[in-house]
Amino acid sequence: MGAMIAGMVARTDMATLGPGMGIFNRINGLDGLSAETRAALTVLCGPVGEVWSLSDWAIVFAMWVAMVMAMMVPTAVPVFRAYADLGAERQLRGETIVSPVALALGYLAVWIAFSVVATAAQGLLTQARLLTPAGLPASQVLAATTMIAAGLYQFSPLKWTCLARCRTPRPFFADSWTNRVLGVFRQGIAQGLDCMGCCWALMVVMFAVGVMNVVWIAVLGAIMTIEKLSPSFWVSRVIGLVFIAWGAALLWGSPAGTALEARFF
What we know:
Blueprint: H1 2-9, H2 25-28, H3 35-45, H4 54-72, H5 77-92, H6 100-127, H7 140-153, H8 157-167, H9 170-175, H10 181-204, H11 206-209, H12 214-229, H13 234-253, H14 255-264
Helix pairs in contact: 4-6, 4-12, 6-10, 7-13, 8-10
């Protein structure tokens, strides 16, 4: 992702990659130019392809894998710690344990599958011109509805159930402990599915703020980590309210919202 961003900095108005990315314009010298000039340079030199080649698909898939690694692995610390602690206790009793690498591979397999789906979604949305070639939503309505949907999911029972299991994985390992490599790999898949049930909607927010937005990769990664380390569901509720309010503001400020306001007010 660093290589992709570095390749774009010299020739692109980085603000077009989503909220917060404008800070990179201080590197390429575009920060002092007018918005019209930056837009013209981006049209001439920025990403323009709507139909992807095989290499484009591969690069975008690699980008999504990088994103999920950066965002999801830190949130899985409670899972790996619980497995390691139980494993250490059993080793003291003379038992053989499976390396946590098998657990990690199962966990990551779930998110790599998510990356496949996300890559396909980005490609199809780009070809349908619902996303720009730079990975931003082509309309405020798409960004707004994505934000609102992610915010509403924060209040769903499925979210809270998966979040609770992610926060306290020790009982899961205690009840289903195994010394078989395939069994531990399956445990990793089970934990990955719980993690996906907890975090998939927050990952989808990338389609609203720009899929190459490294600023929001860091922000969302921090949000998901805090969610899993916090003992309270109020964190999830506050995050949900923020996204719903943000989405509503975008929707109201969109052409559709302006037309509705003009009609009734």
